[in-house]
Amino acid sequence: MTGERIAVIDLGSNTFHLLICETGPDGTWKEIHKEREYVKLASGGFELIDQETEQRAIDAMTRFVNLIREHGVTRTKAIGTAALREATNGLALAKKLSTITGIPIEIIRGQKEAKYILLGIRSALPALKEYGLIMDIGGGSVEFILFKEDHVAFSGSFKIGVAVLYRMFHQSDPISPHEIASLEKYLALSLKPLFDYLRKIKSYYLIGASGSFEVIYDVLPKRESAVHWAELEIEGIFPYMEEVIKATLLERRSMAEIPEERLDYIVVAYLLIRFLMKAIPPQKLYYCEFALKEGVIAEMIGEQI
């Protein structure tokens, strides 16, 4: 397979992702290089990206650009999401990064973010018999896309990302019952439009896209598995999440499956997943490795066909 080398940079609120791939003549692609940097744009809040965080962003983008050059990439697309959308200096930082690297950065709205996520997941996941609810947990926002075959029934971007929930509710170690109750009350109000729609359909499958679901994927047994996705044993998810939610930071650090960079945010991520799954239980649980950046790749290839 020999073709053009293209790249996507996903400048997320928590993590910057780089994906370099090589295209084929039939619209297919293969991964050449992939990595991520935990920049944590939203670590100081969404009002302003501070200088220390800005420098982490510059360092990550500079390293990504060097890798892009090393791999002979001819086209690159860089996408900014919630933190760059929301911060008062988000646009200024995006312009600064573009000037330093020579790569234009497009800051997209939540609906376009959801479109890319759906495109990426549908390029990997087989056809489902029921509605699929994609849940992509980011630092600043969470994207939900409810779809069946070619029909998108509901799509929404909610400002309840893990950096947001952590700053608002996770003050104690371990998180206190009062903080959990406050967080769940906040989620009930925030997610009402989604829940109203889910109650109209008979059943759905939950599809966790990358992010916090990676750890769940590593822990739970698989019912069915392929290269980029798996159906997970749904029965084991609640006991595992409870263990993590009740743990102190020190106890979480001893859990080998949790990366150092996720130790802070994983508790609120699991409270969010638990809240959804208990409120309106899914029939099945899937994990999909593909998300926004793979959707952007699919669009870039489509533009050339």
Number of helices: 12
Helical coverage, percent range: 40-55%
Structural class: alpha/beta
Total discrete domains? 2
Characterize the main sheet: 7 strands, mixed
Q: Any low-confidence stretches, pLDDT <50, length ≥5?
A: none
> Which CATH class of the largest domain is shown?
Alpha Beta
On the 0 to 100 scale, the average pLDDT is: 95
The total strand number stands at: 12
Strand order of the largest sheet: 8-7-6-9-12-11-10
Give an account of the 3D structure:
The chain has helices at 51-70, 82-86, 90-101, 110-122, 162-169, 177-190, 192-198, 213-219, 237-246, 249-253, 266-279, 292-304; strands spanning 5-11, 16-23, 29-37, 75-80, 105-107, 131-137, 142-148, 151-158, 204-209, 222-225, 229-232, 284-288. By secondary structure, it is α/β, with parallel strands linked by helices. The strands form 2 sheets. Strands 8-7-6-9-12-11-10 form a 7-stranded mixed sheet, with helices on both faces. Helix 1 runs parallel beside helix 3 (90-101). The longest helix is centred in the N-terminal third of the chain and has 20 residues, at 51-70. It is globular. It starts with a strand and ends with a helix. The mean pLDDT is 95.
